[in-house]
Amino acid sequence: MRAVGWWAVLVAALLTSATTLVLAAAPQQAPSDFGRAPTAGHDGRHGGAAASGSRRPGVPVRLRLPNQHVRADVVPVGVTSAGDLAVPGDADDVGWYRPGARPGSRHGSAVLVGHVDSRSGELGALAALATVRRGDPLLVRQDDGTHTRYRITARRTVNKTALSDRVFRTTGPPVLTLITCTGPFQPEDGGYQQLLLVTATPAGPRAKG
Q: DSSP label at 109?
């Protein structure tokens, strides 16, 4: 039998390493749940801490998760032609659901959505949601020069077909809801079959700077 050349061994090793890195980048299973998100059944007046007077907050333009070293631009999104929640085309960006509440509003659930990874296997802006912990800080900067601080309070996994309309509520206490994909990637079934929902509650009033 002819000996295998050193270059063939090297190529095989590089391909194996690349495959391992891509598989490691994608979530193989959903992270554990914790906490519970507030619902519209609560009195929305209890959430006034996030607002600065009655002035409407600006449009969100930047997201920070300091503990996870995440910094991402925020762009407005709506719904697709099929009626599904749209996701930014760039995996490095985060989308804000424009028809809903704004971060920093006195009432409702402001929704941010983003990819967990890209088609090339690189991690997306919200991949770090799998590693957040209760109490982690989060900051959203608005186009009016203000920012709103939040603390993460809950994380849960739901099937894509089971995403509740309550996530997009415009009444009740103010929260920030972040959405990305999770669970095993099943290409034969259209990709990820689950969503990871992280809830954050205001940690103080809107501030300048």
A: E
Strands 191-202 and 175-186: antiparallel
Separation of alpha carbons 45 and 184, rounded Å = 40
Q: Is the CB of residue 196 less than 8 Å from the CB of residue 179?
A: yes
Q: How much is the pTM?
A: 0.78
Its sign, for the CA torsion 20, 195, 134, 32, is: negative
Query: Which pair of structure tokens corresponds to residue 187?
Result: 């290409």
Tens-place pLDDT, residues 125-170: 999 999 999 999 999 999 999 999 999 999 999 998 889 999 999 9
3-class DSSP assignment, residue 66: helix
Structural domains of the chain, ranges and CATH numbers in brackets: 6-208 (2.40.260.10)
**Is 72 buried (19+), middle (13-18) or exposed (0-12) by CB count in 10 A?**
buried
C-beta separation of 205 from 51 below 8 A = yes
Strands 207-208 and 175-186: unpaired
